[in-house]
């Protein structure tokens, strides 16, 4: 797997990939692989949904296909009754838009890293790590470039654990006759127009950057519940909602530390749960451990 810049700090991690040299922009992009899966993921759309501007649907199927074929992550199975290990938040659009969104995530993570006092010891053990803290300026580009970003979040806290981004100005991927994720790009319509092809390339680059942090992600895996347990713990006080919508009516409040039983149903960031009194409703996965 290609080496990337990685920052690890206690229970959080993030990666910053330097922009590829212009001489390498024409090299054909391929999907990197992992020796093991680093956990289950639930892919969710972020605020910057540039794919819609190109007449394309959500890239969730493409990202799940990348996860399966690379072996780096396992798509979450809602029928398991347990939350995903990680939320994978995806954004896309012009490079300037994506850089802005990713810069905000980087700033929060770097601030936590510096305040923790771990920056010096962590960066000294990362190849080229000493240059990382100086890389946060100069984002964006003069030319319009299609870009994609992926943030890996903790379902319990919403904290950014890792991130990766990629961009493309021209297509290097061959879609004809390909299988796996390439076939998914075709069936989802992404391979049907120039912007879609560029987005696929950008997402593959972003995914490779994220997957390169595998060893660090393994250490971030949440504690697993005993086999056979179907309980989840409420991480923070939250509302049990009548429907899987932020604006839905509240059925009752759940205190931090309370236990609930997931039914196996999931809608976006919400899972259906039943409390100890028999009330069934919807709770954000970000509010559960």
User: Ranges with pLDDT <50 over ≥5 residues?
Assistant: 1-25, 108-143, 222-229
Note the total helix count. Answer: 7
Say how many strands there are.
13
Order of helices and strands: EEEHHEEHHEEHHHEEEEEE
Please tell me what the overall shape is.
elongated
What is the terminal-to-terminal distance?
A: 31 Å
Overall SS class: alpha+beta
Sheet with the most strands, sense and barrel status: 5 strands, mixed
The helical percent reads 25-40%
In total, the number of domains comes to: 2
Please tell me how large the radius of gyration is. 19 Å
Share of β-strand residues: 25-35%
| Average pLDDT figure | 74
Strand line-up across the major sheet: 4-3-5-6-7
Task: Explain briefly what this protein structure is.
The chain is an alpha+beta fold and 289 residues long. It has helices at 50-53, 60-70, 95-116, 119-124, 181-187, 194-211, 214-220; strands spanning 5-9, 12-16, 40-49, 74-75, 86-94, 146-153, 160-168, 232-233, 238-241, 250-254, 259-267, 270-274, 280-284. The longest helix has 22 residues, at 95-116.
Description:
The chain has 2 domains: 5-19 and 28-220, no CATH class; 232-287, SH3 Domains (SH3 type barrels, Roll). Helix content is 26%, strand content 27%. It has helices at residues 50-53, 60-70, 95-116, 119-124, 181-187, 194-211, 214-220, and strands at residues 5-9, 12-16, 40-49, 74-75, 86-94, 146-153, 160-168, 232-233, 238-241, 250-254, 259-267, 270-274, 280-284. Strands 4-3-5-6-7 form a 5-stranded mixed sheet, with helices on both faces. It has a 4-stranded antiparallel sheet with strand order 8-11-12-13, with no helix packed on it. The longest helix is centred in the middle third of the chain and has 22 residues, at 95-116. The chain is elongated, with a radius of gyration of 19 Å.
């Amino acid at each position: 797997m290609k080496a990337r810049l990685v920052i690890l700090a206690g229970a959080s991690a993030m990666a910053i990939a330097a922009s590829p040299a212009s001489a390498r922009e024409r090299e054909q992009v391929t999907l990197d692989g992992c020796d093991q899966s680093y956990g289950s993921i639930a892919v969710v759309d972020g605020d910057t949904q540039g794919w819609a501007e190109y007449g394309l649907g959500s890239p969730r199927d493409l990202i799940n296909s990348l996860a399966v074929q690379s072996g780096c992550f396992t798509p979450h199975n809602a029928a398991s009754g347990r939350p995903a290990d990680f939320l994978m938040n995806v954004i896309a659009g012009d490079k300037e838009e994506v850089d802005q969104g990713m810069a905000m995530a980087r700033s929060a993570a770097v601030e936590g890293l510096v305040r923790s006092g771990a920056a010096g010891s962590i960066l000294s053990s990362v190849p080229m790590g000493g240059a990382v803290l100086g890389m946060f300026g100069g984002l964006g580009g003069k030319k319009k470039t299609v870009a994609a970003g992926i943030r890996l979040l903790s379902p319990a806290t919403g904290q950014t654990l890792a991130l990766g981004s990629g961009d493309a100005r021209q297509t290097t991927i061959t879609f004809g006759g390909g299988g796996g994720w390439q076939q998914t790009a075709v069936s989802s319509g992404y391979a049907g127009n120039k912007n879609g092809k560029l987005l696929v390339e950008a997402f593959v680059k972003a995914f490779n950057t994220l997957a390169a942090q595998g060893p660090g992600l393994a250490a971030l895996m949440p504690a697993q519940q005993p086999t056979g347990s179907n309980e989840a713990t409420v991480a923070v006080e939250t509302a049990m909602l009548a429907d899987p919508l932020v604006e839905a009516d509240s059925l009752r409040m759940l205190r931090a530390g309370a236990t609930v039983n997931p039914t196996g149903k999931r809608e976006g960031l919400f899972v259906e749960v039943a409390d100890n009194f028999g009330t069934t409703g919807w709770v954000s996965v970000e509010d559960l451990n």
